[in-house]
Write a structure and sequence with these properties.
The protein is an all-alpha fold and 90 residues long. It has one domain.
């Protein structure tokens, strides 16, 4: 599989969608199952999935691409938080 460098806009989209997905999942676990949280989670997954599906490829590439995009978003969030903490102490 060829690795292409993601654009900055796509990385921001992945980070935002991953953050929304994590917050909605936390809300579902702590606050109970509600239709609004499922709607937010669906919108976040669709937001991550659309660029992957547009890029094309086989079914497995699309599935792994979605997981890769979500993981990339989570890594971007953690990187931002750690950068903020290190900026406070430097």
């Amino acid at each position: 599989m060829k690795r292409t460098k993601s654009s900055k806009k796509l990385k921001i989209l992945n980070a935002i969608c991953s953050l929304v997905l994590i917050v909605a999942l936390f809300y579902l676990v702590s606050g109970g199952i509600e239709l609004a949280a499922f709607g937010v989670m669906t919108a976040a997954i669709i937001g991550v999935a659309i660029p992957v599906v547009i890029a094309g490829g086989g079914v497995l590439e699309i599935i792994f691409g979605i997981f890769e995009a979500l993981l990339e978003g989570v890594v971007a969030i953690v990187e931002g938080i750690l950068g903020l903490i290190s900026g406070i102490f430097s």
